Amino acid sequence: MSASSATPLLAIRGLRAAYGNVEVLKNVDVDVAPGEIVALIGANGAGKSTLMMTIFGRPRARAGQILFDGYDISALPTHEVARLHIAQSPEGRRIFPRMSVAENLHMGADAADGNTSESDRSADLDRVLALFPRLKERMTQRGGTLSGGEQQMLAIGRALMSRPRLLMLDEPSLGLAPLITRQIFDVIRRLNREDGLTVLMVEQNANHALRLAHRGYVMVNGRITLSGTGEELLERPEVRAAYLEGGRR
Amino acid sequence: MAVPKSKKSDGPDVAAPALNQQTATRDRSVASIIKNAVVSALLALVLFSLMIGIRTETGPSGQLTYWTRFGELAAVVGAVFVGSIIVETIKRWTGPLGSVELPDTVRRAFSVLGRVLIPALLIFALLVPVIFYNQRYLLDLGILVLTYVMLGWGLNIVVGLAGLLDLGYVAFYAVGAYSYALLAQSGLPFPYFIETYPYVAIDFLQLGSWAFWALLPVSGVLAAFWGVLLGFPVLRLRGDYLAIVTLAFGEIIRLVILNWQDLTGGPNGVSGIPRPTVFGIPLTPGEDGFAALIGVPFSPTHRLVFLFYIILALALLTNWVTIRLRRLPIGRAWEAMREDEVACRALGINITTTKLSAFAIGAMFGGFAGAFFATRQGFISPESFTFQESALVLAIVVLGGMGSQLGVALAAIAMIGGFELFRGLDQFRMLVFGGVMVLLMIWRPRGLVSHRAPSVFLGRQTAIPSSMVKEGDG
Known about the structure:
Chain A: Involved in beta-(1-->2)glucan export. Transmembrane domains (TMD) form a pore in the inner membrane and the ATP-binding domain (NBD) is responsible for energy generation. The complex is a heterodimer of chains A (249) and B (474). The relative contact order of chain A is 0.18. In chain A, a hairpin with a 2-residue loop joins strand 1 and strand 2. Chain A has helices at 48-55, 78-82, 101-110, 118-131, 133-137, 148-160, 178-195, 206-212, 230-235, 237-248, and strands at 10-19, 22-32, 37-42, 61-68, 71-72, 86-89, 166-170, 198-203, 215-220, 223-229. By secondary structure, chain A is an alpha/beta fold. In chain A, helix 3 packs parallel to helix 6. Chain A is 39% helix and 26% strand. By secondary structure, chain B is mainly α. Chain B has 2 domains: 28-95; 118-473, no CATH class. Chain B is 64% helix and 5% strand. Chain B contains 17 helices and 6 strands. Chain B has helices at residues 15-51, 70-94, 104-131, 136-161, 170-186, 211-231, 239-259, 261-264, 290-294, 301-327, 329-339, 341-346, 351-377, 387-400, 405-421, 429-443, 466-469; strands spanning 54-58, 64-68, 188-193, 200-205, 270-271, 379-380. In chain B, the strands form 3 sheets. Chain B has a two-stranded antiparallel ribbon with strand order 1-2. A two-stranded antiparallel sheet of chain B has the order 3-4. Chain B is globular. In chain B, 35% of the residues are buried. Classes of the chains: A alpha/beta (249), B mainly alpha (474). The A-B interface holds A 56, 58, 77-80, 82-83, 87-88, 90, 94-100, 102-103, 106-108, 110-112, 116-118, 122, 136, 139-140, 142, 158, 162 and B 329, 332-333, 335-336, 338-340, 342-351, 452, 454-458, 461, 463-464, 466, 469-470, 472-473.
């Protein structure tokens, strides 16, 4: 296994989480090294999104550690996790529908410290708009009037406005046309190559995700069952059977 | 007659079938109008059969006497039936106003009107005391309207921006009014330490003619304090649950005021509340009065004019602060919280402080308005702070279009001013009032001004001082 030798930016150790009595995460270990794209794939209900949410403290971890930069963040309230420059494009995008695109983007920068000066902020805004030129045309429009793809771009752009050290993407391809999905994945690849952005993504679209990612984890019923580089996982017969050929039927 | 618009008309564009279809939709719409009317009439029958159909009264020896009034009942049910048909027909005829594409010229005219309306209203407001100098009644009405404009703007922060449905806003109005009334009479308490038991003594600083100006901020701060106090228990509540708790809070404050006789005078209220002074100079006919000082004959209208300008300034302050806050991270956080609390948290917004600050700032303006109310009336009692007031202010906010500053102002003018306008109609004015509300909700379901201008624009930088940006923390 080609686990990076550098100290991981995010290290999840023996994580357990539950909704009420239903245990969703059962002893999960995940590493994300700086500058890496890590994909987490698995079927519906495997616990992928729950893992993302648990990093943000909802639901709380029952056991185990979530180490960011070596510090355990599993007991922090959600908003303090976000202020560590861990940004998220949540499942279902969750943009602010009645606020303008510009306001949505500013929301990403408001609470994060580090780009508090006006010039820093407008530089960040320019960078996001360069990545997603589509948003530039829509700046004064309400977020809710955007198409699904544009909303996904907005959600990622909003996350980027906080100058993330770790970007977490939950199903960025959900409900999008293949062409738009590819555009978004291209942007993620570009961010990773050019800025060294670390990305942890959850995807149903295993084929796309594993091609993009340096490493991947396969999650089944709240457990990590397989891990390896993207190519390795793509070649594994059990992955092909469960997530690729099966999915294409 | 115009053919009713049909949304489901997907037939081919050939004359004869299209015509058939139109007659068909018309038949269908007539049927549905009648169906609606029948349902409304049945509902009215159930509701009013007890309320109107049977009249009960206590007989001469205390026994229950009752008689039936089926004639009146039939009249009311008939009125509901006919009224429903009329309303539905008008609705079909005009369609929802929002969906009608206005011609370009009309739209341009509206946008010009929109640009001119605010300055025009402002200039008119400034000139009201000059124009209506001799009409005390209109001046009084203007002050009343402006008080509600201010309350509406204050509540708009909580309901319109932060999306927290507050049915007990009058509590803060009451806190402001009683804070001013009681502190003006006792003086500002200053505790200090002493050697002997009980170790702490309190000095009262008598404020004299400066009472209003010194206590106005104090009332606001105290109201804000109570806003935070209400905020804590309701941090985790949303929507209906929040509404119920805030409703109860408003009633609790009123009941405490009503029953704490020693402090508040209970149902007798507080009287002899000092009137405002022109920054220390009283508006009295005496030698040291304002009129004598500037060398004009004394007139009681002076005070009215002065009160008018005070409340105008306070209302404009509320508006200005709201507009400023909306452009700052804190205002954005309020609106984002209204949209999606979970997403807010994930962006690093502390929901606790954001909610509390919305309650506190909204309550503060309620407190200012309360202090003004007390100094205007010179007498306050719990009767002025019933749920009715909360409902009225909330109606102004909702009617105005949640979050719209201009809409709230227009709604306050329409509600308070309109209510006075129909005073000649006696007991029918409530009926007119209710009817107008129903019609407004049919045609403008999202309020008078449903447009919400974004606070951030591309290309024009909003100046945010770095010292304020940290406000995003809360």
